[in-house]
Amino acid sequence: FQFFWLSLNVWLFGKTFLLYNQGLQYYYLHQMLGLGLCVSRASASVLNLNCCLVLLPMCRVLLAFLRGSQKVASKKTRRLLDKSKTFHVTCGVTICIFSVLHVAAHLVNALNFSENYNEEFVTLNAANYRGEDPRKLLFATVPGLTGVIMVLVLFLMCTASTYAIRVSNYDIFWYTHNLFFVFYMLLMLHVSGGVLKYQTNLEEHPPGCFNPNKTLRQNLTVPKAFEELFPDYTTEPFPEDLPVPEPFVQNSFMRVCSEEPKFQSHFPETWFWISGPLCLYCVERLYRYIRSNKPVTITSVISHPSNVLEVRMMKDDFEARPGQYVILHCPRVSALESHPFTLTMCPTDTKATFGVHLKVVGDWTERFRDLLLLHSNQDTEILPIFHQRRYPKLYVDGPFGSPFEESLNYEVSLCVAGGIGVTPFASILNTLLDGWKCYKLRRLYFIWVCRDIESFRWFADLLCMLHNKLWQENRPDYINIQLYLSQTDGIQKIIGEKYQALNSRLLIGRPRWKLLFDDIAKCNRRKTIGVFCCGPNKISKILHKLSNSSNSYGTRFEYNKESFS
């Protein structure tokens, strides 16, 4: 996909380059600026396209609506919506690349405006005189100054978006990324300067034409005696009713101009490109703010092993589908910062409670945990609703769609989780516990890989209850559970007699993915299997590669991966 998008942008760059290189309306400007004109305008067209589309993947409500509506019935089309984050990143990288070209071209243009100043085309010149310092064009004009500030903002956003900074200090990424609004405001001012102009009277003044009146004024000399006798004498152009002298008659290869060239600035096309997506994004953010301005009621907080915290809460008229995620915002932790978390429990017709599990791995989650467990030194805290004053205010935005909503729409699904990546599948397992017959899913392969034995206890009770329920309903083959302990010094078991069903499915080491896929394909010949992964990139790449490879059983694997927008 990234290669296709880059190719499309290169094609757009080439088409625009040829337009400005060969277009007659840009003849005089091209003579003044050279290829700098073509490169700057071609890169600007690519930037317009990407600045327009980079906001659309961030419209979470719109994506969730499209995913849940019946208008997008195709499974392939819904899977394209799952690439929203990839598309957003691709547009961002494209903006960075072509911004470098755009800036370099305008630096050359500023120098050419100064050195190639032409007194015949005063309106076409951006410089005021020949030899003017090009730095004045960069720092003393609206297009130049806004361009410099935009480069600084874009540099901060790009550097703070790197993986190293996002992992080490997410706050830097969060705050710098929200400078996008400043970037767009500067962009709208940047294109309003009208520095580059085009010729409007091509019929009356074809580029390179011959102007007899101008030639006479320049070449016709007046004797000195006439100047002394007639000091007010000026050379007048030929009257319109008189024929032009023979040397100036238009020939087969040169046209005669009837007037001087006229130039006009382009209407800022960038406004057309970005106004729609920017307004759509602002309206959605306003809607999300209104929807989430009422704090939720926290019903319980549970501290699990391996630094995992479970928060259960209630909210009026809150509805969600298994596999979706929400965004949590706690003002006492951070006034502006918020984070997405997958729902591990969805509200149903019989219970209004929903919940999330979060791994305490950063500053935000550490402060959030300290606030929730402020008055408790125990591992578990389950407080009744009338003790609400002990909890900080918590706001929930969402829910939003994710690829895992499709797991119940396949006849056979393979769900692979790595560590805390099990959270998207927890809500699916909870839903199946309430009732599985209403869904298309008839067989579920659940693979969970963890580094320590205690991590399995996060959802050990849920897995045991679902296992027992299916055995009671005579459907033990409905779910195939495989638990892998990747790091251990010896044989270990999940402590507790009630976990015997899981102990028998606990394996030491890492899954042999190729054999696993072959076995699943053999047992499900000529079927389409949904593959869902939430975990480390290394596992994701292996599963993606195996899903795209062919097999001798006619089984088709469709790969899906968790990706927060």
From TrEMBL:
Any one cellular-component term (Gene Ontology): nucleus
Source organism superkingdom: Eukaryota
Cell compartment(s), UniProt: Cell junction, Focal adhesion; Cell membrane; Cytoplasm; Endoplasmic reticulum membrane
Presence of the UniProt keyword Electron transport in the record: no
EC number(s) recorded for this UniProt protein: 1.6.3.1
Transmembrane segment boundaries: 42-66, 87-108, 137-160, 172-191
Keywords recorded for this protein, A-Z: Cell junction, Cell membrane, Cytoplasm, Disulfide bond, Endoplasmic reticulum, Glycoprotein, Membrane, NADP, Nucleus, Oxidoreductase, Transmembrane, Transmembrane helix
Function in brief: NADPH oxidase that catalyzes predominantly the reduction of oxygen to H2O2. Can also catalyze to a smaller extent, the reduction of oxygen to superoxide. May function as an oxygen sensor regulating the KCNK3/TASK-1 potassium channel and HIF1A activity. May regulate insulin signaling cascade. May play a role in apoptosis, bone resorption and lipolysaccharide-mediated activation of NFKB. May produce superoxide in the nucleus and play a role in regulating gene expression upon cell stimulation.
Protein name as it appears in the record: NADPH oxidase 4
Source organism per UniProt: Platysteira castanea
